[in-house]
Write a sequence for this structure.
């Protein structure tokens, strides 16, 4: 990579920005990156492969120009469950009326409509709730037949063609990856994305299938948006490389009062495992059409930072909104301000998980403690596949973390990890060489001045992932 731009964030929590029609020029992309975006999300629910390729190329050109590793998240759509079409394009359902969902492709009316998903009919039982159009309408199943469901309208309203269906009560026998997703996965992996956002996860097997396809070419970022995923949370996290609290569908399928608790539970569980966790959806929703957020939205972002999320995400705000730069800028300012608050540091320290009973985790915990005791300017983590940097970030140290890797893919993946400033550097072969390199890099990045101390962690022998076993304190000259 070329000479690095002197770009250091004033915050530890990262920002993910979604690209779309409002942010698909090199000029806007550059403004978003220099304004605070650390990772760019490509939403494969929209756009053709050519659109996404153009954005990937722009990101990589910006990376080359800036000399800074940039992460790319390819978010695949997952199975979309929808009703069929209506004779007039739209009907009005009245609360209390009967309504049938069947497999017939004939356009519907106020009495029935096609439900082209036999899996739902097979899984539903009497009393099962069906949510339509992002939860605006609610049906309750009163009778189950082989080819249709009889329901009662619990919450009525207007329903138009192809609106979505959510089934919060049951686990559906539907794979998380559709044929479209598999084609999108092949495309994204062929073009070197860093994370795959896996939608509609219900069970551990969904993650295992995606991991088998990616074969280590990207990190799997499991999107937690189904109640069934929460029932299998530990098993799903054990297979994931990162997770996302996808509050859009999660907010449809869970009662509103449960969503904040689910968010806290997921963040806490991910932090316990040292997995990067992103909080997403509707963070600054009003900024799609307004140049400033509501005070409630600012508080929402702050809450995610206080909870300990690795990153916060912007969706339509930067993809289709009128103020993409302003959204990134204000999110950057909110996060930075929270992290200057003494209460944030105290809460972060109080919520630090206990070290895992393995030597690598003990080294990371010791690095944080030593850095705190000697007031070190930085922790420099030499990391081949990213595990050393992840373990240090799990400790939430007081000082900056410099994640140093010979692997550009690793440096890009670390863009989403709390507090890690990633660099690509030539290989080192001994701990003495690593210490010399670490002090020079820390000084060159403006993290340490002559006379200060830094803490260096690494795994020996070098070049083998997952072997964190060494710690040194070094003076910067």
């Amino acid at each position: 990579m070329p000479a690095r731009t002197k770009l250091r964030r004033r915050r530890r929590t990262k920002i993910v920005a979604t690209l779309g029609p409002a942010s698909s020029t090199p000029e806007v992309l550059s403004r978003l990156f220099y304004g605070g975006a650390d990772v760019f999300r490509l939403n494969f629910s929209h756009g053709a492969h050519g659109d996404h390729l153009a954005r990937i190329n722009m990101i990589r050109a910006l990376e080359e120009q800036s000399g800074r590793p940039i992460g790319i998240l390819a978010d695949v759509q997952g199975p979309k469950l929808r009703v069929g079409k209506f004779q007039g394009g739209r009907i009005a359902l009245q609360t209390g009326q009967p309504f049938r969902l069947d497999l017939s492709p004939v356009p519907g009316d106020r009495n029935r409509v096609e439900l082209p998903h036999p899996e739902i009919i097979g899984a539903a039982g009497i009393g099962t709730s069906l949510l339509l159009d992002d939860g605006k309408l609610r049906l309750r199943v009163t009778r189950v037949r082989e080819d249709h469901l009889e329901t009662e309208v619990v919450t009525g309203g207007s329903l138009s063609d192809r609106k979505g269906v959510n089934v919060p009560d049951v686990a559906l026998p539907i794979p998380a990856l559709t044929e479209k997703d598999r084609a999108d996965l092949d495309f994204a992996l062929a073009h070197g994305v860093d994370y795959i956002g896996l939608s509609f996860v219900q069970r551990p097997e969904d993650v295992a299938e995606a991991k088998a396809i990616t074969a280590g070419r990207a990190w799997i970022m499991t999107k937690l948006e189904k109640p069934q995923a929460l029932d299998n949370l530990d098993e799903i996290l054990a297979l994931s490389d990162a997770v996302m609290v996808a509050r859009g569908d999660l907010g449809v399928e869970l009662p509103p009062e449960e969503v904040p608790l689910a968010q806290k539970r997921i963040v806490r569980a991910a932090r316990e495992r040292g997995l990067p966790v992103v909080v997403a959806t509707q963070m600054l929703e009003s900024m799609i059409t307004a140049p400033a957020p509501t005070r409630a939205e600012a508080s929402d972002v702050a809450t995610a930072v206080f909870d300990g999320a690795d990153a916060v995400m912007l969706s339509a705000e930067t993809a289709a909104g009128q103020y993409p730069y302003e959204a990134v800028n204000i999110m950057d300012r909110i996060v930075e301000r929270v992290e200057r608050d003494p209460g944030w540091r105290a809460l972060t320290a109080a919520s630090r998980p206990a070290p895992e009973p393995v030597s690598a985790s003990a080294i990371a915990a010791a690095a944080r403690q030593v850095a705190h005791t000697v007031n070190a300017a930085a922790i420099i983590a030499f990391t081949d596949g990213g595990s050393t940097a992840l373990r240090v970030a799990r400790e939430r140290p007081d000082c900056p973390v410099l994640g140093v890797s010979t692997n550009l893919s690793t440096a890009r993946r670390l863009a989403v990890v709390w507090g890690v400033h990633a660099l690509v550097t030539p290989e080192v072969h001994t701990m003495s060489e690593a210490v010399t390199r670490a002090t020079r890099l820390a000084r060159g990045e403006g993290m340490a001045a002559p006379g200060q101390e830094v803490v260096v962690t690494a795994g020996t022998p070098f070049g083998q992932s997952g072997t964190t076993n060494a710690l040194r304190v070094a003076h910067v000259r």
User: Anything to note?
Assistant: The chain has a mean pLDDT of 96. The first helix runs from residue 26 to 35. The CA atoms of residues 11 and 336 lie 5 Å apart.
